C-alpha cells in the first residue's frame, strides 16, 4: 500500500496492513485512491525515504514500468497506449476541409496561420503518454532516478552477424510474394 505524508509528499510503501487499518479506523489516515490503494497520513511524521529507481521499457503499444529499491520491487505495471490517434487526425482533417469548402462570404481569407509542428501527432501523443506515466507514479512513490530503456534491434544482424549492405535486401524472404508464402514454404505447407 502506498503512503503519502500530511503535506502530500510520497513516502515509502508499506505491507503492514494492520497498521494501515488501525490508522484508518482512528482517523490518523484517509484513503486518497482506491487503485492503487493509497492513504494519506493526517499527522506530522518525518519524511524519511529510500532511493527508488523507476525503470520504463517503452514499446509501440505497451509500456512496462517497474520501481525498485535496493532490495525489492515496490511497483510494477503495464500501460497500453492509444492506437487511434492517426485515424482521429485523418477524420479531423476531413471535417476541416469540408468547413473550408463552404460558402463563407463574410469570413476573411486565411492562408498562413498554421503553426509549425515539431512532432507528428501520433508520436507526440506517445511521448506525452510516457511523461504522464512517470508523473502518475511519482505522485505515489518518492522516485529518485528514472531509467528509460529505448533499444532498436537489428534482427537480421542478430541472425547473421556478417550481414552488410545489399544482404539486407536479399534476405530469407527474397523470392516470396509475402510473409504468408514464406511461412508456408518454410513449414512445408503443413
**How would a textbook summarize the main sheet?**
4 strands, mixed
Q: What's the β-strand tally?
A: 7
Work out the strand percent. 15-25%
Q: Number of folding domains?
A: 3
CATH topology of the largest domain: Nucleotidyltransferase, domain 5
* CATH architecture classification of the largest domain: 2-Layer Sandwich
Give the CATH class of the largest domain.
Alpha Beta
The number of helical elements comes to 5
Shape: flat
Structural class: alpha/beta
Pattern of helices and strands: EHEEEEEHHEHH
Explain how this protein is built.
This protein is of the alpha/beta class and 190 residues long. It has 3 domains: 49 residues, no CATH class; 102 residues, Nucleotidyltransferase, domain 5 (2-Layer Sandwich); 39 residues, no CATH class. Helices cover 31% and strands 22% of the residues. The protein is built from 5 helices and 7 strands, in the order E-H-E-E-E-E-E-H-H-E-H-H. The strands form 2 sheets. A 4-stranded mixed beta sheet has the order 6-5-4-7, with helices on one face. It has a 3-stranded mixed beta sheet with strand order 1-3-2, covered by helices on one side. The protein is flat, with a radius of gyration of 26 Å. The mean pLDDT is 86.
Amino acid at each position: 500500500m502506498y503512503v503519502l505524508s500530511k503535506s502530500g509528499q510520497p513516502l515509502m510503501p508499506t505491507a503492514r496492513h494492520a497498521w494501515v487499518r488501525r490508522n484508518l479506523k482512528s482517523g490518523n489516515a484517509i484513503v486518497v485512491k482506491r487503485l492503487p490503494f493509497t492513504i494519506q497520513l493526517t499527522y506530522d511524521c518525518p519524511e524519511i525515504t529510500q532511493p527508488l529507481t523507476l525503470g520504463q521499457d517503452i514499446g509501440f503499444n505497451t509500456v512496462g514500468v517497474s520501481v525498485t529499491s535496493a532490495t525489492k520491487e515496490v511497483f510494477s505495471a503495464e500501460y497500453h497506449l492509444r492506437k487511434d490517434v492517426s485515424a482521429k487526425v485523418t477524420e479531423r482533417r476531413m471535417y476541416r476541409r469540408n468547413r473550408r469548402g463552404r460558402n463563407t462570404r463574410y469570413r476573411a481569407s486565411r492562408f498562413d496561420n498554421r503553426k509549425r509542428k515539431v512532432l507528428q501527432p501520433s508520436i507526440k501523443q506517445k511521448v506525452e503518454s510516457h511523461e504522464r506515466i512517470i508523473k502518475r507514479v511519482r505522485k505515489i512513490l518518492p522516485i529518485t532516478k528514472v531509467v528509460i530503456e529505448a533499444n532498436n534491434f537489428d534482427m537480421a544482424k542478430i541472425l547473421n552477424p556478417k550481414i552488410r549492405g545489399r544482404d539486407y535486401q536479399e534476405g530469407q524472404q527474397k523470392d516470396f510474394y509475402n510473409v504468408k508464402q514464406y511461412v508456408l514454404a518454410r513449414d512445408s505447407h503443413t
